[in-house]
Design brief:
With 332 residues, the protein is of the alpha/beta class. It contains 17 helices and seven strands.
Length: 332
């Protein structure tokens, strides 16, 4: 069962006796668990029928004991286990899951770990209740996710602002949602979120960020590229070399794909590179400035400097100096 189906059932008061919410992406787990905690019972019913337990403070027998209680003056009781990944031998819950109480909603939050659905424990969970695996989004899916989320909230976001958030916040959806919430609080209803709003409310410089560095390198704007790299070197905590190299690797990899496309129409390029069509022109310009042979050498450079940033063949050169060296070799 996927996230949307689970929430839709909960909103329609279709409940299951067991919810095992697992996976590396905590956002969806929290959304489902919080909805159950906030909406299944009334405030009065919660006093006697809602229990929240933390994994490091409990064990399987205690969870089963709580789950086997009957509700008082309510149709259901809710037992929520947070940080369940801290519990040893959690598969011993099978004793309860094989025959759960229909009047109990047992919610297990098992974060940051993958599960093996082939195991009998998880097969039984899936049979008796809801087994949900919350997977991390790939980097190339984040921009589309941000666009959809912002639209659901009744706003629009410009491609540049979306790109800035994508590069700055990464794939942690909880962090992404938290920062977008800050933006929404500070803009009028149905407003368009642009790069200036992002800079003002989140603290991402619209002139000195990895997105602008890519553009400066792509257009061979040597002055602007060096200004940004000098800024990065002066602020290494906010702009770690490992992250910069990783993002540039993705950028130049997409340029290599662009060179090899037979159909270079706007829509086909956007689809092949997994980018917003708004940015296709940037790749067209960059492809003219970097031949396929040059791109191959740049990819090799990025791999070399990734290793240097991790201490391989580098004893004392700072990340800032390494980045300056790398930029020089890319541009010349």
């Amino acid at each position: 069962m996927n996230f949307e189906q689970i929430l839709n059932d909960l909103k329609n008061k279709i409940y299951y006796p067991v919810y095992f919410l697992a996976g590396e992406e905590s956002y969806y787990i929290d959304e489902i668990s919080d909805f159950i905690e906030d909406h299944v019972l009334t405030d009065v019913e919660k006093e006697f029928n809602q229990t929240v337990i933390y994994g490091r403070e409990t064990d399987v027998l205690s969870i089963i004991s709580n789950a086997k209680r009957y509700p008082m003056m309510a149709n259901y009781q809710v037992v929520i286990v947070k940080e369940a990944q801290e519990i040893k031998n959690i598969d011993e819950l099978l004793l309860y899951i094989e025959s759960p109480l229909d009047s109990t909603l047992l919610v297990i939050n098992y974060k940051y770990k993958k599960i093996d659905k082939r195991k009998s424990f998880f097969k039984q969970v899936d049979k008796k209740g809801v087994l949900f695996e919350s997977k991390k989004l790939y980097d190339n899916k984040i921009a589309a996710w941000i666009n959809n989320y912002v639209k659901e909230k009744g706003y629009e976001i410009t491609p540049k602002a979306c790109a800035m958030l994508t590069e700055f916040l990464g794939t942690n959806l909880s962090k992404v949602v938290n920062e977008i919430s800050k933006l929404i609080i500070n803009v009028p209803e149905k407003a368009i979120i642009n790069d200036e709003l992002v800079e003002r409310n989140i603290g991402i410089s619209k002139d000195f960020n990895i997105f602008e560095l890519q553009n400066a390198i792509g257009t061979r704007n040597v002055l602007k590229a060096n200004q940004i790299v000098n800024y990065f070197a002066a602020n290494p905590k906010e702009n770690p070399l490992v992250k910069t190299v990783t993002i540039l690797f993705g950028y130049f990899s997409k340029l290599m794909i662009f060179h090899q496309l037979k159909d270079k129409s706007r829509n086909n390029v956007a689809s092949a590179l997994s980018i917003n069509p708004f940015f296709v022109q940037d790749y067209q310009v960059a492809a003219k400035n970097y031949s396929l042979q040059k791109l191959i050498s740049i990819i090799a450079l990025l791999k070399e400097y990734d290793l240097k940033s991790k201490g391989v063949n580098n004893i004392s050169t700072s990340d800032g100096e390494l980045l300056k060296e790398l930029l020089f070799k890319i541009l010349h």
